[in-house]
What we know:
Blueprint: E1 28-30, E2 33-36, E3 43-46, E4 49-52, E5 57-59, E6 64-72, E7 76-83, E8 86-96, E9 103-104, E10 109-123, E11 126-128, H1 130-146, H2 171-191, H3 198-213, H4 235-257, H5 266-274
Antiparallel strand pairs: 1-4, 2-3, 4-10, 5-10, 6-7, 6-9, 7-8, 8-10, 10-11
Amino acid sequence: xxxxxxxxxxxxxxxxxxxxxxxxxxxxxxxxxxxxxxxxxxxxxxxxxxxxxxxxxxxxxxxxxxxxxxxxxxxxxxxxxxxxxxxxxxxxxxxxxxxxxxxxxxxxxxxxxxxxxxxxxxxxxxxxxxxxxxxxxxxxxxxxxxxxxxxxxxxxxxxxxxxxxxxxxxxxxxxxxxxxxxxxxxxxxxxxxxxxxxxxxxxxxxxxxxxxxxxxxxxxxxxxxxxxxxxxxxxxxxxxxxxxxxxxxxxxxxxxxxxxxxxxxxxxxxxxxxxx
Length: 276
């Protein structure tokens, strides 16, 4: 299919792929169209493309809405997001963060892949080669970059508050660790392999109870980035919660994977290994 002007999808995410491959090139394991099955050797028509993406965070490509969720023998767990006239399917997922009917923004994390990502694309119901679709978005982004209208770095939806934590000096390293381990963290908690420590759960309950009593919530109009409508009066609350959640993520890394921040002392590492 030849792309016309009306088919150009505007995306402000700064990148064209649903995931970021930091240290190597993106690897496609199976293309679109007539293919030979890698296991059986049978010839079949592949309605999408497969990327090697083991437990990767997957992002929305533009502003859109989740229009489908399901689980079947062909796709496994899958999610369909509608961007204007396009419908993009992410399949073979291990977790979903954006539910049916939810509006998503470019760069927002919407799901986690399993061992790979299967991706399908339709325009007004007509099936497209996903690589052509991704190339179109890439070309559009590069054109906008040339005109100084867009950045080239993927972003996540965050609170528009000046929130600081005890881990600010390690922010970049923590972000890198989250890109690698956060899907496993969420999956292990969901399956019961890892549980939030009781003292952390109690601390979070106390913070939110006191905050509700002090009317910290819904000071501003709620949004996807700020569902509780928190205002600047709530910055200390956000900082306490962030500190607890980051500490628990680091606790998980230490206990389950023996991974630590490079700035941690031997004593701090020992404390994380043994718990409070």
